[in-house]
């Protein structure tokens, strides 16, 4: 069934479209009788205002584009919830595009956002993205954008990221304070900047204590963690584990359960969104990377940029904010 328009209502009631529009908005120049007649017709024929057309006339779509590398069961959902909590209050809608960790797809999604006349863009860059050259078009078109979770050298937009150095060091301290002497560090893809920053900080802190042995493995998935630990857990002297993410923690936990090594004196510490460890084992300690907080901060900064875009107070910034 075709959507009922203002023009349709006007033709049915034999009045002008402007009169219908003003009646629906309770304009004081329209009589109560006409208002009642228009509203009854609108309800009968399921008239819904065309928000896009209204916002287009105001030069605002009230829509935000959200681009993420992938949608996993960890972290991204909490970020989306945080973003939603802010945008809903501001009367904004948003659509989500997954780039499947492909730089080419990321560029295509940016074009989709531009063509959709979004008011702003929230983007988490792919692992293939090495610079912000492809974002220059947004700057030229004065489309505000906030980068979150990852950043690139000389970024041209504000970024909201976690302090990976601090979080990895705090996790190392937890294992040191527990008295661990033979630690296994489980890291993700060794080619990623996030992995290297966490590794350097963790390893530097542990090496300050010469009596501690540190072993490092790289695993790009929970299944690969389990595969490698099937061999490494033959070494019963390992008394401390560090998992750099929820994915690596999930693989570690599964391996410990298989060997009945959970609930022993072996210490497990991770960097986590915060939900998973509580359901796996209450003895696991973790440093929280709060996705909800990241989502709310990124969305608030984008709203600030949109609101100040056409004022004298607008500040063009590429500042990086650490959580």
UniProtKB/TrEMBL annotation:
Membrane-spanning intervals of the chain: 63-80
Molecular function GO labels: DNA-binding transcription factor activity; transcription cis-regulatory region binding
CDD domains: HTH_LacI, PBP1_LacI_sugar_binding-like
Coiled coil: none
Transmembrane helix listed as a keyword: yes
Sequence ranges assigned to domain HTH lacI-type in this UniProt record: 4-58
Database matches in SUPFAM superfamilies: lambda repressor-like DNA-binding domains (SSF47413), Periplasmic binding protein-like I (SSF53822)
Keywords: DNA-binding, Membrane, Transcription, Transcription regulation, Transmembrane, Transmembrane helix
SMART domains membership: HTH_LACI (SM00354)
Protein name in the entry: LacI family transcriptional regulator
């Amino acid at each position: 069934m075709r959507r009922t328009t203002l023009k349709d209502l006007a033709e049915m009631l034999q009045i002008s479209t402007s009169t219908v529009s003003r009646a629906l908005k309770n304009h004081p120049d329209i009589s109560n009788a006409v208002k009642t007649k228009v509203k009854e017709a609108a309800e009968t024929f399921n008239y819904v205002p065309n928000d896009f057309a209204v916002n287009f006339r105001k030069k605002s779509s009230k829509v935000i584009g959200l681009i993420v590398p992938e949608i996993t069961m960890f972290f991204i959902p909490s970020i989306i919830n945080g973003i939603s909590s802010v945008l809903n209050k501001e009367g904004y809608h948003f659509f989500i595009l997954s780039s499947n960790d492909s730089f080419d797809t990321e560029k295509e999604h940016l074009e989709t956002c531009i063509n959709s006349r979004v008011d702003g863009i929230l983007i988490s860059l792919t692992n293939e993205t090495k610079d912000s050259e492809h974002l220059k078009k947004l700057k030229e078109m004065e489309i505000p954008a906030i980068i979150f979770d990852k950043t690139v050298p000389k970024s041209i937009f504000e970024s909201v990221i976690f302090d990976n150095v601090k979080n990895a060091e705090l996790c190392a301290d937890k294992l040191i304070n527990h008295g661990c002497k033979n630690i296994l560090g489980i890291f993700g893809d060794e080619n990623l900047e996030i992995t290297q920053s966490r590794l350097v900080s963790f390893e530097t802190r542990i090496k300050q204590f010469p009596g501690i042995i540190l072993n490092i493995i790289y695993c790009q998935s929970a299944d690969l963690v389990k595969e490698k630990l099937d061999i490494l857990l033959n070494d019963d002297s390992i008394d401390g584990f560090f998992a750099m993410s929820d994915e690596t923690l999930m693989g570690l936990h599964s391996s410990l359960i298989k060997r009945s090594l959970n609930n022993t004196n072996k210490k497990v510490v991770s960097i986590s969104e915060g939900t998973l460890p509580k359901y796996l084992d209450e003895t696991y300690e973790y440093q929280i990377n709060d996705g909800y907080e990241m989502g709310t901060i990124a969305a608030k900064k984008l709203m600030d940029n949109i609101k100040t875009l056409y004022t004298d107070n607008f500040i063009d910034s590429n500042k990086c904010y650490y959580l």
